[in-house]
Specification:
The chain is an alpha/beta fold. The protein has a single domain, classed as Alpha/Beta hydrolase fold, catalytic domain (Rossmann fold), CATH 3.40.50. The protein is 49% helix and 15% strand.
């Protein structure tokens, strides 16, 4: 059995992984880890260093969780066997995205939070899934369960994001990136940098936006099986 510790994205919880876990079967177990309530990526990583096992682990992160997983692997490469980054490029926020987050943060702090708007949820999905009520319901349910306080904390703590690709390359860890082809949040320049780097494995899911674990769980489960099984096969040999 392969165990993989999983970090979610902004306003996501363990429900993010349910469809992928169902597709994986019993041979691979996803261990959801909540993002610590800290004020910066540095402090979040410091708490994770106490929460996660001391022995080398398989690590997977989605969106904001993908960046945090990258930061953890950069700082503690000896504690990671393999790293998969989903719907993130381990780079800093684009200027437009940072500004959008700052505006959202300011609005929530002044006006309060009334939950994830349907249009915002749909904007994170590929065209095929914008009308998928099951996915939209999961997104809204996760958002409602976490609430305003966690939204503010996650927006504040994730604004400052240095580019981590050069640090990840220096770790010499096996690192796999998975992105949706229709994910507008993925900077083209970063994707090109990843694709042209022999140390990284870039995989693109068709008919998929940002919410890859919800939109393409079968595709993601196949990638997880392939990527993490390589380590098991290497040890057996």
């Amino acid at each position: 059995m392969i165990e993989i510790y999983c970090l979610p994205g902004t306003m996501c919880d363990q429900r993010l992984w349910d469809s992928t876990q169902a597709a994986l079967g019993q041979d691979v177990v996803l261990r959801p880890i909540a993002i610590p309530m800290e004020d910066s990526i540095e402090l979040i990583v410091r708490v994770l260093a106490d929460v996660l096992p001391q022995q080398p682990i398989h690590l997977l992160g989605f969106s904001m969780g993908g960046y945090i997983a990258s930061a953890f692997a950069s700082q503690y490469p000896q504690r990671v066997c393999r790293l998969m980054v989903v719907s993130n490029t381990s780079t800093g926020l684009l200027a437009a995205e940072r500004r959008q987050r700052e505006v959202a943060l300011d609005w929530v702090q002044k006006q309060g939070y009334r939950g994830l708007p349907r249009k915002k949820a749909q904007a994170m999905l590929g065209d095929k899934h914008k009308g998928n009520e099951l996915i939209l319901d999961i997104m809204k349910t996760m958002d409602k369960a976490l609430g305003e306080r966690i939204l503010i904390q996650q927006l504040q703590s994730s604004l400052d994001r240095p580019d981590l690709l050069s640090y990840l390359e220096q770790t010499h860890l096996p690192i796999c990136f998975a992105v949706g082809k229709e994910d507008a949040l993925m900077p083209a320049s970063a994707l090109e940098q990843i694709e042209n780097n022999e140390h990284f494995d870039l995989n693109t899911a068709e008919q998929c936006g940002h919410m890859l674990p919800l939109e393409q769980p079968i595709w993601l489960s196949a990638l997880i099986h392939r990527f993490y099984a390589e380590e098991t096969n290497r040890i057996i040999k």
